[in-house]
Amino acid sequence: MDPVRNPYAPGAGQKPPELAGRAKQLAAFDVVLERIARGRPERSVMLTGLRGVGKTVLLNQMRSAAISRGWGTGKIEARPDQELRRPFSSALHMAIREIAAAHRDPERVDEFLGVLKAFALRASADKGMREKWQPGIDVPVAKGRADSGDIEIDLMELLVDASSLAQDVGVGIAIFIDEIQDLGPADISALCAACHELSQLGAPLIVVGAGLPHVPAVLSASKSYSERLFTYHRIDRLDRAAFDLALLAPAEREEVTFEPAALDALYAAADGYPYFVQAYGKATWDMAAQSPITPNDVRVAAPDAEEELAVGFFGSRYERATPAEREYMRAMADLAGDDGPVLTAEIAKHLGRRPASLSPSRDGLIKKGLIYSAERGSIGFTVPHFGRYLRSQSD
C-alpha cells in the first residue's frame, strides 16, 4: 500500500494518529483544571510508567488542555547534569508571557518578572557565570524575593508570586516536567515543598510531571508527605480494546482495515505497548499489498519492525552502557525475563561477585535511565522487552 498514506508514526514523544486508552487520565485532568478554575484546591499530577508507554504524549496532551482554557503553561525536560533553576525559569517565563496580556496592571507583571529574573540569575551567580547567561527578561532585577540562593525557599516564593499573578487574571498556571526522576535531590525537595505550599494556599498553579515507575519513591524519599501531595497515574500498556482502536481508527480513515487474525498477531507482537504498536503498524502497512491487511502481512513485516526497534529503541540505549554495565544487564535478562524486577542479590550470585562490587554498574545504569529501583533490593528495566532484546543479542 501507499507508504505516503501510512498513518502510523513511531517516534519519541510523537503523538500517535489515535490517542487510544488514555481517556481516563485526560478526563481526570479536566476535572483538576475545572476545580482550580472554580477556586477549589487541587493536587499536582504525576504520570509514571516504563519508556514507550506514551507518558510524554500524554503530558503534551494535558498541556494542550490547559492552553485551551487560557492557562499559562511551560514545559521542561529534566536532565541529570542540569539544575532546575535555569530551565524552570524559562518555562515559567513562557507561562507568564501567555497570561501577561490579559493582566490589567503591566507594572505588577514587571514586578513579578523582576523576581523571576532574580531567581534565574542565582543559577549564574552561584557558578560565577553571570556574564555568560541571561534569562532574556527585559526588566530590572528585583531584590529580596526568590534570590536567597536556597532553592527550596526561592522556588516557593517564586511560585506563590506567580500564582498570585495568575489569580489576578482568573486563570491558572501549569508547569510540565518530563523525565522528572532526573532532577537532583535538592531540586526534588524544593519542588515538593513548593507544591505543598501551593496546595495549602489553594493557589491556581500546578506541576505536572512524568517519569519512570520509581518516581513515587524518589519523591517520598525527599518529602514524606509527597504521597499525599500528588495525584499519581500509572501509565501502562494498552488493553485489547484500546489497542484495536489505536490501529483501526487511523487505517479506516485511509479506507483500510485489518483481518481479525491480523489484529491478533499484531497484539501478540506489540504486547500493547504504544511505541511498539506504531512500529509494527507502520512496518505492516508498508509490507501489505492491499486491504484488508492479513496475518501473513504481519508475519512478513515483523522482522522490519524488530530491526527498527533494535536500532532506534533498544540499540541506542544499549550503546550508552559500559562493558561492565552491559554484563550487569545481561545478568538481569537471564534472571528477570523481559522486564524484571529481579533481586540485586540474585544478580551478584549469578555473576559470582560481591554485591558491593556491582554497585558502580547498577548506579551508572540508573543514572542513564536504563534500569530503575523497583523497590528496595530489586531492579527492573525501564524499557519494555529489553531483556528479550539482550538475550537475542547474545544468541
Automatic annotation (TrEMBL):
Q: What is this protein called?
A: Cytochrome c domain-containing protein
**What InterPro entries does this protein's entry cite?**
AAA_16, Cyt_c-like_dom, P-loop_NTPase, WH-like_DNA-bd_sf
For region Disordered, the annotated ranges are 1-20
> What keywords were assigned to this record?
Heme, Iron, Metal-binding
Organism field: Hoyosella subflava (strain DSM 45089 / JCM 17490 / NBRC 109087 / DQS3-9A1) (Amycolicicoccus subflavus)
**Residues covered by the Cytochrome c domain:** 167-333
List the Pfam families hit by this protein, alphabetically: AAA_16
> What does the record give under GO molecular function?
electron transfer activity; heme binding; metal ion binding
